[in-house]
Each structure stands twice: as structure tokens, then as C-alpha cells.
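Worked example 2:
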Amino acid sequence: MMKYSFILLSGETEGFLEKLQELGVVDITRSAKPVDDCSAAMLDSVAAAKKVIGRLEGISYEKDSDFEKVSKAYAEASTPVDAVKEAQLALVESAELELAKAAAEKDVKARLPWGDFDKTRLDSLETLGYTVRYYSVNRKAYSAEWAETYPLEVISEDKNNIWFVTVTAKGDEYSLPVDPVAAPEASWKEAQAEVDALTEKIIQVKGRLLRCKDAISQIKAECTETLVDLDLYLAKLSTETAVDNRINVLEGFAPVEHDAELCKAFDEMGILYIKEEAAEEDNPPIKLKNNWFSSQFEVLTGMYGMPVYGEFDPTSIVAPFFLLFFAMCMGDAGYGILLILIGMFLKYKMADSGLGKMHKLVTFLGIGTLVIGFFLGTFFGMSILEASWAPQWLKAICVDGWFPDGKIAGFPAQMVLAVGIGVFHICLAMVVKTIGFTKRFGFKSTISTWGWTLLIVGGIILAALGMMNVMGPMAMKWAVIGLAVISCLAIFIFNTPGRNPLVNIGSGLWDTYNMVTGLLGDVLSYIRLYALGLAGGMLGNAFNIMGTMILDIPIPALNWVFCIVILIFGHVLNLAMSCLGAFVHPLRLTFVEYFKNSGYEGTGKFYSPLTTDKEE
């Protein structure tokens, strides 16, 4: 990054910032959040508009029973002046009308058994000295003898209940073994008329919402414009003033490759500026540069935090290992095929949405799962080694077939493989930390780090060479002694040059305790790669067993239907659960085990240049 310092007259600042927006590559140091009521209002308006867009995009009335009427209401609705405000009002009104309609429909259902009647005429009986009581009883509780004893009239009945009324003169006492119910407020037809009226209002509101939906592109353009204005506003507020507010000083950063064109543009503007190579203490923004594969995983690095200036970008290492970890946690080649299909669906059917932009990442994860699934020997919960349909070459690549009983030193081969990958991952992190810290802070400040890396990584390498008989016993002996002496001197004596050796020894002992306990827990964490893959495979196999058990039912047509339903439901459920675990746990191994051992800080700032093409 190049650092630019601009010195401007107060009146020139706003125009200069607008020109920077047109250039679109200079990141002016500014707040990432609203700083006053004005900027907060601008951000709130964008948030409200995005919410409205999400609601409008989900609106579709093609399957509505009143679609023709809705279409007519849409044609009659006028184009809104303020689409966001109109949509907000219509959405609230729609929700209120739907609630009122549900209540009215409930009234229709409650009043329907009482039939169509004139409430006014019934109430007039009270003035004539008669009392009307209403009853609703279960058919089993009703007795036909009541009609012979009491002034009773059955209004309606069904297979479960009977509704009836009694009419008696005021003062006449009688006792039925059931309690009366509340009198209906009006006829069911009146409630139905209310439902019809509310339905018409809802149709009109739906037409207005469809008209608002036509303005989505306009709303998005207004959001982009507001974000651009907000960016400009925050940049203006971030300027430092001098000479009684007559002079403004701005600081900005841009990638080195744009330096020539920027300098030319600044010279043409007649702006006073100073440029220099950005340094770590300047805390410049970070723009990641990765290849076509690793760039798909930059979102994971961003979730943790951008690297500080001069720090190693971990994305190139995060990408292959996260893909491997995800695939091992999924552990099923069949699910890999489904993920590839989902990636293709996102690409061709949801290209403009946020999920659509993730289609490459989903496809990569699917390909990795497909390859590792065949390696682990699982296809939709079925063991490839035991499957009669699997060709011999496919069985030959399954890891469990490489070892007797699928075990290494008495442990499952896949578990040993997971731990081995974990050891390599942590060793790689330590090497990255050692090289990175040496480059940033110098060798003198990283002697202890070199000592631990030599001891652990070098020890593992020597052990591997010894197991392969590459080194003779005497050479191995002196190599181990030399490694131990150099490492111990670096860890316990020279960990902080210039400090009291006794203090260094104490510090080294404390580091030893933390390193031993920490590394043990870190390595064991990688067993989850084996456990999650095993659990997913067992659950998929359980659904396969359930589906095949249904086939034993002697109903030729239905047994296949139920079998297919169970298999589809079971594997979709297992796929969703496996994807969740396969995303969260590799993320933990990356963020905790790898980043901790690699010394990754992740406190850098995102590169966010002033631009007129602000992404929402």
C-alpha cells in the first residue's frame, strides 16, 4: 500500500473527496460506523430499504386463489412516489388485515351452526318477556327426552355436536344438566360479509405491493446512492483541521499498482500531497490477493479478521485445509455430488443473490467431499468396501482397505489419519509463525520461537526418518542430541537476550508447561474430523436400513413409496446436519488451533476505497 497525505483548503475538501470517489481506489481513513445522527439516519434508511427489498422479493401471488383480482388491483394501483415508505405501510396494513380476516373467519366458523337469523328480532323477545338460552353439547351427552320436558329447539347438528336453544318466559325456572353458552353476536352471514370485505381490502394491498415490487431496482439504486453519500460524509468528518479550520488534512491509502495514475490525477487537480510507502505503524487497510482457488475462502479469513500490514495472509493455507477438513467431516461421496448440484443451482438460479455468489465455494466443497468420500469409502451411508456394485478400482482407493482390519497400531485408520493431519497442520502453523515473526520482529526477538519450532517440528522429522531407517543409529543419536541442546538453549537461556539467565529459565519453564498442555489438547481436537465423518456415515446407514426394512412389508406399491420417502427425508436431514457440523468444526480448527499456533493476529482493516459504485 501507498500512503497519501493531502493538505487542502476547507472549501476544496468536499469537491476533492467527490473526485476521489470517481477514481475509486483511495481508502480515506474514516469511521466504519455512524458517528452522529445524520450518518445514523442514512444508515438506518439503507437498512430499512434492504429489509423492504427482501420482503418484496419474496412476494408472489401466482398461486393465490384471487390472483386475477390481485392482477387487476395491480393494474389499477399507481406507481408510488416513495416505494420504500409505501411498501412499509402496505406490509403493515397487510399484516393487520390478515389478522382481522383470521378473526372474522373464526367468527364465521363459530356462528355457522346457529344459522342465519335476525339478531334484532331475537333481542326483541326480551322486551316481550321471554328469555333465549343457547346450548352446544356433545352428541353423546344430548338426550332426546329433553325436548319433551323443556321448551327446546334443535338448530343444527353434526356427527359430534348438537346446537339448540330454549325459549322460556322470564321467571320460569328450569334446569338442564349442561350449561348454556354465550349467545352469538350476529348471524354467520354478517361475519362472512366482514370476511369478504377484508378479502377485498387485502387484494388491493397486494396490488400495491406488486406495484412496489416493480420499483426494486430503483430502491437498490437509491441504497447505493445513500451508501456513497454516507461514505463521503464519514470521510469528510474524518479530516483533521488546522489554522483556525481553514486547512484540512486527510490521510488515505491505495494499492501500489495504482500509484502512477493517482499521482497524475492529483497533479492535474493541483492538490498538495505527500506520498510514501505505507508502514506497519500506519495500520493501512488490507486488500487480499489470492489465486482463483484461495480467493473463494477469503470470506473465512474475513470472519476472523484481516491480517495486519506485514503479516502473512493465511488464506492460501486456510483454503486447502478447510476444504480437506470439511470433506473429512462430511465423509460421504454421495453428499459431495449433492453439494456440487447445489453449487450449480446457486450459479444458474440464484446468481444475483448473496447465496448465488457462494456457488464456487459450495462447488469446491462438494468436489472435495466427493474425492475424500470415496477415499474414506462411504457413498450415501453405504460402505463402498462392502458394496457389490462398487468396482474393484474404487474399493482399492478406500483407506480402510489399505490396512488389515482397517486399523493402524490397533486404532481405526481414519482416526490415525485425522490425528496425523492435525500434527502436520500444527507443525505448519509453527513454521509459519517462526518465519513470519522473524520477518516482522527480527531474529533476536524470536529465538524462543525458533527453539520450539526446531524441537517439535525437527523432532517429528527425525522420528519419521528413524522409522524409515534413513539415518543410522549413530547419526540419529547425534542429531537428537544436537537438536535438544540447540532447542533448550534457545528456549531456556536465550529466549530474551540481555535478560537475567535465571529469569529466562523460569520463563522457559512456564512456556514449556503451556506448550505441552496446549499442544496435547490441540492435537486431540483433530479427532473430531474422524468422529463427525463416522457419525454422519452411521446416521446415513441407519436411514438406509430403515428404508430397506419397509420393503419387507408385503404391499408392493406402498412399500417402495415409503422406502423412497424415508431415504429422501433421512439423507436430506443428514446432509443438513452434516453440513452444519462440517462448517463449524473446521472453522474452529482454523480459528483456534491453527491461528493460535501460527501467531495470527487478524486485527487489520478491510480495504474500503471511496467509490461511486458502493456495494450494498
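The longest strand covers residues 130-138. The CA atoms of residues 77 and 143 lie 58 Å apart.
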